[in-house]
Amino acid sequence: MSTPDTKATPQRAKTEPRYDELRDNAGAIRPHWKHLAEGLSALAPQEFTRRRAAAQDIIRDNGVTYNVYDEAEGQARPWQLDIVPFVIGPEDWRVIESGIIQRARLANTVLKDLYGSQKLIADGHLPPHVVLGHPQFLRPLVGVTPPHGVHVHLYSADIARMADGSWKVLSSRCDAPSGIGYALENRIVVGQTFPDLFGDMQIQRLASFFNTWRECVLSLAHSRRGRAVLLTPGPHNETYFEHAYLAHYLGLTLVEGDDLVVRDDQVFLRSLVGLERVAVIFRRIDSDFCDPLELRSDSALGIPGLVDAVRSGAVVLANALGGGVMESPAMDAYLPALAKHVLGEELKIPDTPTVWCGTEWGRTEALARLDRVIVRDAFDSRPLFSRQSSARVGSELTSAEIAALRTRLARRGATVVTQDVVPLGLAPTFNGERFSTQPVSLRVFAAWTPHGYAVMPGGLVRTSPDTQTRSLSMQSGASSKDAWVVGRGPADTFTLLKQTGRTVEIRRVGEAPPSRAMDNLFWLGRYSERAETLVRILRALVLRINDEPQAVADLRERFLQHYLRPTAVASGDDNRQLHELRGLLYDQRSLDGLQRLLSRVRQTAWSARDRLSLDTWRTIQKFTERSDAKKAEQLFDPAEASHYLDSLIRSSAAFSGLSAEDMTRGPNWLFVDLGRRIERGSQLAWIVRQTAISADPLEISRMRVALEIADSAMTYRSRYLNMFQIAPLIDLLLLDDSNPRGVAFQLAAIERNLEELPRITAGQRREGPFNLAADIRRAASHADALLLAHANDADQRLDLATYVDTIDHAMSRITDAITDAYFQHAVHSRTGAARREAT
After folding, report:
1. What is the pTM of this model?
2. CB burial class (10 A; 0-12, 13-18, 19+) of residue 122?
3. Which residues fall within 8 angstroms of residue 291, CB to CB, at 6 or more apart?
């Protein structure tokens, strides 16, 4: 396989030279790239294609996604990874490492001043408007000193190579930096793709950095007796995969704002066993959204009272609140002078030349250099040219737009900055068909330690097929790469997964999980069982659509009427049933259709992503894969539909099997199984009702279908051969506690599961769910199948109707009781006890 050839890239203008990472000006491969280039060249094209496909399979199977808010796919959009790594030589890395450490120190020192004495403003080193006019400058935090004075626990900077080989900082993040989890995932995937090259090149490892970051943040807490959590905006956030992935890798509890509550200036987690003290919060929510009481009142993501807890010093936030003020383009204009004043040093890696237009000189300079700059909002820290950015290239402005800019500069110049246009360096990529060179930028991360900042040896590389791009962001469609830092000696083999020398206490249970997570798992069990029931009903009808039209019409009326809505198809149309089945099967717009129900399973599983094993997650992905949308408009093919439904049943069975065999019998399994049992009991009762509520000539046909839907046909035949009567069916599906597909079996399982749940809070000690389940199980054990099968003179089985309605009502009451006891804690009931335990 040939290596990338820079001569094959599109011709570029002489006024915009680019740095080529792979080759020097003479066309020779640079030394630190040579081993990789030779290794890739030695691979046959078929082998490279195979490895690339394997990497894409890992990404898909692992559920690595990046959610773009205005895309219909949402979190289903797969992560884009180019498997050709970005190689950084030792000399380059020394420059990057020292420059990023310096900038992290500078950011932390400046934030100390801005939220402390504000001498930088008083002495004229920073214009007041750059700080006090910034929407991310949080006045409630002024005078609040975080533990050990650490504002920036994790710092990131996007850097790019200039034409002369130097580096420039495009932007930095001090508030809630993102991307570090994706960088770790990229490393794992690419390391598995080229394990021989990775080892031979002595690439520096990442695990030590993550361990240092975690341990240094935890060390700032007054006590390690409290929980350490990772605070996420939730499953609809664009980087939610990263949040779940990092929580798992770092051993943190993934929480949302509603999971936490502040009492007596301390933060508590609403866990399954009540309120538990939280000592450390790794924060992935922007500062201003963190407390609706003192910051953004419209935030639904934060924790009311969190700022008070921060003031009291009872909780460590990493990063500390208020770091967003350092991320503005306006601040970039003053960083060179601040570095000299605060650190006594020149910036080792300068920013893109930036001019703040809040002064007369700045406004004049901006207009004079308009053809060479980008015009930005002074406080807009979003990536350049992302979908929400208002940045404009000065040379592309029309005469009317330039006139409007002049007016804005005269009236509100302090809200505008200009930044020089910088062409990004080029690195080798593989676009799926061939090698080429494309623009790249590198996001580097630094973590605070008591001995100074430590830089992660690698980072998140972003690349774009558009050679004229001036900024790269995942929201704008960029792809990613792994960054390989070539070491000078043997690579560090530390891993967070290795055993340590410390003796670990034997435990049979983990920490109490958040109530919200258990709520999601409970509904994952319910939705998955509900989806399987609909699949089995649809399959029963599809199998009979051509041979038993009268039976199909009866079954449609009995079993599908709940799912059907008024349709535009004429009632006399012979194809009406086919239209309805096609819509229920394939139409993603059908509110009560299968695709919408599978979407609920997928979304609920996504919300509980950190609680599911990788195999379980992959199985759910397979079960909930969207069907081809075109099938909703095509002619209905019963054979194709039957094959699709069969595959769904197999996937559902795989999920049930993994739940039964692979999950430890802790809260995760208990709530998934409870949801499944409650839903199955309710669905079975409803199926029996629809099958046998009235006696008529089609009763035997319905019995066959009911046994098929309940997956109990073989059991029935082994007991009763082909003698189809209602009483045996009622006994098998309602009263037989040895039938895993019977209601009595579900009631017994529900009672056992509820008995295993903790009884810590007052609501749990009242045993409402358990008592309800026990009562209904005892009542069911005394039911008589022959009496329930008796029909009155009008051929109606009223006792059966009453019985199944009682079952259905009991399932609803048990659900409500579980919710009251485990998902809606009365927070005052545990505050006192939790406070005493935490001190």
Report:
1. 0.86
2. exposed
3. 299, 302, 303, 304, 305, 306, 307
